[in-house]
Amino acid sequence: MADSKSGDIEADKLGVEEEERELAKLVDGKELIEGIGVDSDEIQWRKDFVGFTEEDVENLEDLEDLFEGIKEMAAEEFYEHLLEYDETKEVLERSTRDVPSLKKTQTAYLMRLAGGEYDESYFADRARIGKIHEMLDMPPKHYIGTYMHYNNIVLPRIINNVIIKRRDEMDESGGVVSGLLGGGSSAEEKEAEIRAISEEIADKMMSFLRITNLDMQVAMDTYLHSYSQDLKDYNDQLTSVAYNVQNAVDNLSTSSQQVVQTSRGVHDLAETAKENSDEVVRDVSEMSSSVEEIASSAEEVDDMSDEMEESAVNTLESVDRINEAVDEVDETRSEKQQELESLVEHLEDLENLTDNLEDFADQIGILATKAGTHSAELTGETGEKLRNISDQMTNVAEQAESRAETADQIVDDISGSIEDAAEALDEIQDDIEDVDEASSEAYEEIESVVESSRVTSNSMSEISQVTDEQARLAEEIVVRVEDTAETSEDVSDEMTEMVQIVEDQDSRLENLNDKVQTRVEEITEEKQREADLF
Fold first, then answer.
1. The domain that contains 326 carries what CATH number?
2. From the DSSP assignment, how many helices (H) and strands (E) are in the chain?
3. 225 belongs to a structural domain
4. Is 39 helix (H, G, I), strand (E, B) or coil?
5. Exposure of 263 by Cβ count < 10 A (0-12 exposed, 13-18 middle, 19+ buried)?
């Protein structure tokens, strides 16, 4: 039996460790008790405050066998009671774990109460359990109430367990039970036995109540810590809301002032618009007259454009005739150029002939000289005749040479005239090219003038149509501007009313801001009182 019991205890310890690991995944108990300020010194103070001593540790360890025997039954009764109420049933349904798993955790907790170790690790586990219940939105009244129900389950079993153990310790001839049933013990002995049993029952019960009270303290600390954090968050949110409301009211107030200023500005603008509308009516009337004058001028420009186009077309025809005349002059120039080139060829022949004549004169001169020489050698009539022939030949040579010189001069004069004529023809060619180029440019310019004249004529026609339309629109504008003047006057009156409304609204916003700030302060104080009471 001892080995079996030892095995059950070891299994329970393993179960507790497994439960702790599972819970650690949800909430860090060590971090939690640090957050609520439960350290070793605080734990000892609380133990001292509720009177939890080593004697309580021993009493709880003595209950280990009892708890081992009733753990499943206690868990069954505990959750059966919770499932009878819709409120606690809803909390259990919100848990990620099913009821059988929760029962397993409950049996582990009961065995942990008799474990004898109540250090930071133990209370970290209690803080973790309390935090999980708070996360499941279990109200404190339910959590504290479950401990009362747990007392209803466990305490009667503790009483019964003490009585049974006492009975087993008595011998057959004595003991409280036999004495109470009519045995031979004296009244003093019976009273002493009853007092001893009562004290043991009270000690065991108080040890159980002290440890569960410490458990509830830590669990409630987690609730308070969470509520305190929620209250802080709530106050921060409330402060933020109040701040936002204040900003909104300030912005609205600023906007209201801007609206008032804008409304007044619109009022002034409306008055100005009415005045401007009257001026516009006058200006539009004057513009209508100007438009009519423009239309008349446009018609005149249109006529002038037509005349310009006709004149430009005539000019183009004249340019065409000039081009034809220039072509004829160029053709004549080409013919004269050819004749000059032919004349140059004849001059070259004439120069050759002159050269031959000069050679002939030179030869005659030579012959005359020879004849003169021979005539001096001869006497008589023959010598005389030869001298006459020599003189005649000399005369002929001189005449030939003179005529050759004259011919050379004539050739030189003709050659100079031909060169002048060639230069004149070249100049004529340049002039013809200049005239041809100028004619082409003039032709292009005149064509552009013709096109511009046509465009101008078309534009003037369109302008004439547009100005007619403008005159019609001007009349409509006058009518609309008159209507605008009346509307501006109505707007001015309405904006005056709006200014008054906005000013009233601004005053209401200031009152609203005061009420919001007052209500925020009241809610903050109310929440703080609730936290203090809790």
1. 1.10.287.950
2. 12, 0
3. no
4. coil
5. buried
Structural domain includes residue 210: no
Number of domains in the chain: 2
- Asked if the structure places residue 203 within a domain, the reply is no
Q: Which DSSP string do the residues of 19-37 spell out, in sequence order?
A: HHHHHHHH--HHHHHHHTT
H or E segment to which residue 70 belongs: helix 64-82
> What stretches in the chain show pLDDT beneath 50?
1-16, 19-20, 23, 171-173, 176, 179, 181-182
Q: Are both 285 and 152 inside the same structural domain?
A: no
Of residues 196, 200, 209, 199, the one with CA closest to residue 50: 209
pLDDT of 478 reads 61
Q: How far apart are CA 92 and CA 10, in angstroms?
A: 29
Joined tokens for residue 101: 């798993």
Rounded Cα gap, residues 79 and 302, in angstroms: 109
| 29: its two tokens | 């108990």
Distances in Å between the Cα of 528 and the Cα atoms of 12, 248, 522 are 44, 27, 10
DSSP assignment, residue 173? T
Q: Which residue segment(s) compose the domain that 448 sits in?
A: 266-524
* Burial bucket for residue 444 (CB in 10 Å: 0-12, 13-18, 19+): exposed
Type of residue at 281: V
pLDDT for residue 60: 93
Quote the pTM value.
0.45
Question: Residue 482: what residue type?
Answer: E
pLDDT digits (tens, 9 = 90+) for 25-47: 566 778 787 888 888 899 899 99
Instruction: Tell me the pLDDT tens digit for each residue of 337-378.
Output: 787 777 777 777 777 877 877 787 788 888 878 877 877 777
